[in-house]
Amino acid sequence: MAEVKNNQVILKDYVVDFPKESDMDLVEGTIAQKLPEGSNEVLLKNLYLSCDPYMRMLMSKTEGPEGFQTYSTGSPLTGYGVAKVLESGHPDYKKGDLVWGFTRWEEYSLVPASMILFKIEHTDVPLSYYTGILGMPGMTAYAGFFEVGLPKEGDKVFVSAASGAVGQLVGQFAKLSGCYVVGSAGSKDKVDLLKNKFGFDDAFNYKEEPDLNAALKRYFPEGIDIYFENVGGKTLDAVLLNMRVHGRIVVCGMVSQYNLAQPEGVTNLQHLIIKRIRMQGFNVTDYYHQYPKFLEYIVPKIKEGKIVYVEDIVEGLEKAAQALVGLFSGRNVGKQVIVLAHE
Amino acid sequence: MAEVKNNQVILKDYVVDFPKESDMDLVEGTIAQKLPEGSNEVLLKNLYLSCDPYMRMLMSKTEGPEGFQTYSTGSPLTGYGVAKVLESGHPDYKKGDLVWGFTRWEEYSLVPASMILFKIEHTDVPLSYYTGILGMPGMTAYAGFFEVGLPKEGDKVFVSAASGAVGQLVGQFAKLSGCYVVGSAGSKDKVDLLKNKFGFDDAFNYKEEPDLNAALKRYFPEGIDIYFENVGGKTLDAVLLNMRVHGRIVVCGMVSQYNLAQPEGVTNLQHLIIKRIRMQGFNVTDYYHQYPKFLEYIVPKIKEGKIVYVEDIVEGLEKAAQALVGLFSGRNVGKQVIVLAHE
Fold this sequence. Notes:
The structure is a homodimer.
Chain A: E1 3-11, E2 24-32, E3 41-50, H1 55-58, E4 78-88, E5 98-104, E6 108-112, E7 117-119, H2 136-148, E8 156-159, H3 167-176, E9 180-185, H4 188-197, E10 202-205, H5 212-219, E11 224-229, H6 234-241, E12 243-251, H7 270-274, E13 278-281, H8 291-303, E14 311-315, H9 320-326, E15 335-339
Parallel strand pairs in A: 8-9, 8-11, 9-10, 11-12, 12-13, 14-15
Antiparallel strand pairs in A: 1-2, 3-4, 3-6, 3-15, 4-5, 5-7
Helix pairs in contact in A: 2-3
Keywords (chains A, B): Oxidoreductase
Organism (chains A, B): Stylosanthes scabra
Protein name (chains A, B): Enoyl reductase (ER) domain-containing protein
């Protein structure tokens, strides 16, 4: 069975605070270009890899809580990607199919089809979109905003990390639903993007707001109905002070906390009672059965230019570690993607 | 218009940390025993007054958030009580009616009927029950457990402050719903009560558990489906580590935090995401339309002895301040009630 070179990005050391490029290593492995006899797995050529904030949690040594398997040192990272099927032992996939789903940070991967693996039907959009707007982040924004947030026309919506892979979509969904939406981000460029490209009603740079509570009072004099939570910590504490009665906090991520050995304490949870707030964590995997419905909603809007998407694309597996690390310093503008091959 | 003596418990000073008896004062006022001409108010003779943890929040000087009016110094406290109608300018009430609802800490009160005021229909149960099991705390337990908690048979339920006015009922509702329920309380007597009187599957004294996380792992090796939150702070943080996927945290109160100038920080909120937890604050007033349905559920169970209720009753307005203060050191065993008159 012929083996070919298979470059991989492996986790070298468990990460303690902010991840560094040197926590990962680019190593040369090999892989058989044929499926093992009787296998029902799928052999993939990886085209695009997705950098997502949740990956930081899997880089810690701490025993993962229920349902959370952290990475193993010496093994390639896992994550979402777009790939082409080279061989398939599973009846749902055949050679030549384009797919998106769970793969590994390497050139070729042998994956169980029982993991998340969607066949790509629409190829008249950029393939990289299946790591973002048409993939996990898109479904996350859709399920989180509509299914967990239950928006009503006129709702006041606040989105943190608003120019990120998920946030930029939440803001656009909010506008399309007749809501007022304000986003926060960490640079002037990102704030401009929010206001001028994604159509947020307003946006601010949280790094220039020493008093987040005062900033929120300025943008939401009547309070916030829906907070789409991507960052956690101090931002959440300030938001709790500014929520309206019967508000909803959609807890999608807490990226400001992932690099801290001891997360910041949140002190204003009493406001959950006073204002009868629903604060709800969710995981996109619980909503993947709605993916066809999501495509019906979003594909026409992409084609008509009613929804736009900004990606930050780097070329080559050798840039992968740097790209992932950049996510936690906010270096990326838009969805961070790594291209390994274009087809 | 004849005026009569009307003893009152007033707030003397705004409270900073734990309330003290000396923060309140017993003063002699007067009140007209006739309604003002054309009034649609109701003149009440107060029979029972209810001591409830939420009252602590109203004793602080801090500007109340939306919908929260703190007490005024020099004025009587307000709160739930049971009373007899002496005069009524409102068509729904007539002289001689027994009612429960919002009144003031004084012998006689002139109240607007537009406040919460329910006519008492069942008088073959102790009248004091309308400050507890048949009043606001009963409705709180019912709405919180059933409407917010959405229990399923077999769910593992944890209740903090479990021997209190609300907690003792939540535990009994959980058992009647086929759940496994464990309660925490602050003394051996209370723990005995939980196990032997209220039928909790198990119970523990949190003061004897230096590691709350370890205690919860012992009582819930498979994790917690529903946490009925009455205390907040460190308890909530330990519970978050022990919740199951799709668990629900019913946020009813956070009594451990009410006396702190700076609430304890809660650091494990990331578990909301990992385990897809819904954490929801609620206010019983949103559910009062279900009161008739609640009575249908609970009155037969009281009469058949399927639900029991423990009260801690003191006599006389002069004991009221002490009774209220005792709530925050856990001195009371069961629902704290003050009797002013028996009819």
